[in-house]
Amino acid sequence: MEGVPEYLAGELQMWLLNQFAGYRRLEGELRLRLRLQGSLHGKYGDDLLDVVDAFLYWNPDSVWDDGEEDDDVVDLTLEQEAAWQSEVDAWKARAGEVEEILRTGGSAWRVNRRLNGLERRIDETVTAAVDMAAKTAQEEAADHLATAWRAAYGRDPDPDKAYNEAVKAVEALACPLVCPNNSRGTLGTVIRDLRNQTTSWELAIGDSAGQPSSIDRLVGMLELLWQGQSRHAGGPNSRRQTQVEAEASVHLAATLLQWLTSAVLRRKS
Is the pTM value of this prediction over 0.85? Predict the structure, then answer.
């Protein structure tokens, strides 16, 4: 079930009531954000405010049947309250409470790693691999990858943003490494320079003879990410990225970040 199953609603209501009891300003902030979200995107409008009432004041008649909007209330509450927190350990505990409710109840959603919203629950091994790539990358690349992940797997997916941020994450590492003197370098620049300097680079992964491999396969991965992006609005081939492309781009970027960070691509000595 994509939304909140009925048997989880009571537990989430209690969690939200506790958050509003501790931060009375949160209710007003949340109502304002929900109203703005409705007016900006035409998604909910005042109807989502009724869901807040359902959670806060136990009015089950105003809860929508599919539970999708319930998740949005939790998502925005996490985001708003996380921005206010000064006591990190205390917030980790409170966010952990709602994650435990969602996990044990079999929800399709989970609290994200930054504790500031919900994301789609996927295999832990896959999530851990992306987390490791972000942790080992420098800050700019890690931030772009985290933004790409949330745009792909968050409550309000944005495939175009996810793909764009995935490209930027790779550019943040690849441009300084391959073309450090080009202040306007892009992933396309990196691909071009690597193609022109194939004799200067190698991969730490060995070939069938046990020698460092050529960079061709890595360049192919970079080209796949770069050429799959619809970059120029209004052009003959302009289009929206699909959700499948968005998710694939994030995982491809994570792999590329891990390779670039751990010197799988290296200059020949």
Answer: no
